[in-house]
Design goal:
Order of helices and strands: HHHHEHHHEEHHHHHHHH
Shape: globular
Strand content: under 5%
Radius of gyration: 21 Å
Number of strands: 3
Number of domains: 1
Structural class: mainly alpha
Largest sheet: 3 strands, mixed
Number of helices: 15
């Protein structure tokens, strides 16, 4: 498959942004006790720090679908199905092993979370099984899911019904005890994210157009998605489970308006984040400068970067804790605090989080460049397609 530079650039940009969220989540002094989107306790700067990273997961999932289309458009049905299913199973395995350990550093694996890597894996498996329907049909199915899955909350299931128990994890966040102090958390509900991937798969046909025509289509899609977001959000009836409301001042009223739901990704969440993504893709068409060159380096090795940045950030957290005087015996890895002691103030203020974020991204530049060059030189090594 010939690489599409705009895809790599945009994917690289959101990967850089993603590191900010994970540095904040693991190391910010208030991240354990305070939600950055809780308008009663947040600040505009903290809210923005979290909100900007909302772009990451929808872009990853959408472009995973797009890349699947481009990579397999000339493959026969059996080959494409086999690759997608194997790739999906591999990603789910990675989620519950290397990714889970990188997140918690807990050798007992007390918390297993179904997050973005597993959601992409689930999407690949479903895409492999459904691929024979064709891009147009899959795109329509994806749009039905994206626009309609918020309606599932209106179905009057009894609180203890089997149907509610079975369906809830597929459409919304849920947690299940596994015994022996272990918990399974469905963080990225697979059906809504599958909708995003299917739309991304169908959108792969856009990248068969010449760059000028593609740019016009992307601008129209981005502008249309954002306009529809504004209209639906102003109506304030459908599209997000949490309506916006006037606040004490104009700034916080705007924050309320923009405070859309990620878990599970609401229609409005998808419209605003994917709308921005379309505009970014349009801007990246034909762009060539030092910044786009750097973004491409990260965007060409997304899974390698994802794993490396999680381990690096968690190691930095341990260094911070030791420098703040916490002995190893006080660190708590099984309780969901990433190793941070539960009953003590730890972590760094927000301005230092930004400094660490820049350092993490910079530190991974050379490893990502070298790994990307290795993949390019050794295309005969099929295992490289899985990392």
């Amino acid at each position: 498959m010939k690489r599409i530079n705009s895809i790599d650039i945009v994917r690289g940009v959101v990967m850089i942004i993603m590191a900010l969220d994970h540095v904040r989540d693991l190391i910010h002094v208030d991240s354990i006790a305070q939600s950055p989107t809780n308008l009663a306790t947040t600040t505009p700067f903290l809210f923005f720090t979290r909100w900007i990273t909302h772009l990451c997961a929808p872009t990853f999932v959408f472009l995973a679908g797009t890349s699947a289309y481009l990579a397999l458009k000339d493959a026969d049905a059996a080959t494409g199905r086999s690759f997608l299913i194997k790739r999906g199973l591999w990603l789910i395995l990675l989620e519950f092993t290397l990714v889970t350990f990188a997140l918690w550093f807990d050798p007992g694996f007390h918390t297993l979370i179904f997050q973005v890597i597993a959601a992409i894996g689930f999407g690949f498996i479903a895409l492999g099984l459904l691929r024979g329907l064709g891009p147009k049909t899959l795109g329509i199915l994806g749009l039905i899911i994206v626009f309609g899955h918020n309606l599932t909350a209106l179905i009057p299931f009894a609180e203890d019904s089997i149907a509610r128990t079975v369906l809830t994890p597929f459409f919304g966040p849920a947690a299940f005890p596994l015994g022996a102090g272990r918990t399974f958390v469905m963080g990225y509900s697979p059906i809504p994210w599958l909708g995003v991937m299917l739309v991304g798969y169908a959108a792969g046909k856009l990248f068969e157009l010449d760059p000028a025509a593609r740019r016009r289509r992307l601008l129209a899609l981005g502008g249309g998605a954002l306009a529809l977001f504004v209209v639906l959000r102003l109506v304030n009836v459908y599209g997000d489970p949490v309506p916006w409301a006037p606040q004490a001042d104009a700034v916080y009223t705007f924050l309320s308006f923009m405070n859309v739901t990620k878990y599970a990704p609401s229609l409005l969440f998808c419209l605003v984040t994917l709308g921005v993504m379309f505009l970014m893709l349009a801007a990246a068409e034909g762009a060539k400068n030092r910044a786009t060159d750097v973004a491409e380096i990260y965007g060409r090795v997304p899974l390698f970067y994802f794993l490396a940045h999680l381990y690096l950030i968690h190691l930095i957290l341990l260094i911070v804790l030791f420098l703040q005087g916490f002995p190893a015996s006080s660190l708590e890895f099984a309780g969901g605090t990433f190793g941070r002691p539960k009953d003590a103030v730890s972590g760094l203020p927000l301005w230092q989080i930004y400094a660490l974020w820049v350092g993490v991204v910079a530190a991974l530049y050379v490893p990502c460049r070298l790994y990307g060059e290795y993949k390019r030189r050794h295309r005969e090594k099929t295992w490289l397609r899985y990392l």
